Amino acid sequence: MKLRVRVQRQTLRVELLGAEPSLKELADHVRDALLPSQGLSRPAGGVSQPEGASASAPPPAPRWEPMLCCEAQDGHAPLSLELLLHSAETASPTDAIVVAGHLLMLETGFLPPSGELPSEMPAGWRTPAGVYRLQYSHPLCGSSRAVVLCVSMGPLLVINASLKLNGSVDAVRKLSVKPAAYVTDSWPGGGAAFRDLNRLSRVFKDQLAYPLIAAARDAMALPVAFGLSALPPELVLRLLRLLDASSLLRLASVCRTLAVSAADPSLWRHLYRRDFSGETAAARWSDNTITRRW
């Protein structure tokens, strides 16, 4: 297998002999063979830095992004998160969660106020009173603005995300997380050590970021931007063909759009031929009949 890998604006050629490698084997080869040749190393913290650099030195400029938050494993963190943590001078697990949430908003397409750099926390994001406040816009949300307020309440961090459209609050989303579940108690060198960062990414985006985008587009009567409803009908049918009859009926009760797709005659012909034909179908029908009688 021959590949081209882009590192520090240079295209490097990689040739792997033998059977087709897995994604992990390919990543290990890039880390162990290519990065050292470019003067980079990959320490346990997940930050790429020049070999021989002091451990107490500030992180280097972002030159290689190994992963997103949803791809983090085994305590590693993306370089972008490490740089944000360093520039924000985080002092507690709560600070670290807010910084991670800011990066997750950026990963979802949200933009900080004009003039703010994505590689730094916005000015005034943390107040002496222990309240965190962040503002964003989004290309898919028109003129609306998203405001994220975080308040620490004992072991919980309560995150309230509100959507402001034409000066009024149109939608509010709430999420409560335990910083201790995602950040370790040890702070070597003043840095945060994350765990289950991929789970935090999934929870934050599914319960806050994506619903905010959907609410903004719905408030402005814009078409759906993502999800099953945004796919072409033929792709929706291909996905629905993977379900069984009971799952399809439950999905049809979610909304009118999915109900129309689930009622397609060709879809039910496919399900009948796949799941309800021959002796198996007769046995199932007999069992269902007996159950209904009882």
UniProtKB/TrEMBL annotation:
Q: Name one GO biological process term.
A: positive regulation of autophagy of mitochondrion
What GO molecular function terms would the record report? protein kinase binding
Q: Where is the F-box domain?
A: 225-271
Per the UniProt record, one Pfam family is F-box-like
Where do the segments described as Disordered lie? 37-65
Mind telling me which PANTHER family this protein's record contains? Answer: F-BOX ONLY PROTEIN 7
Full protein name: F-box only protein 7
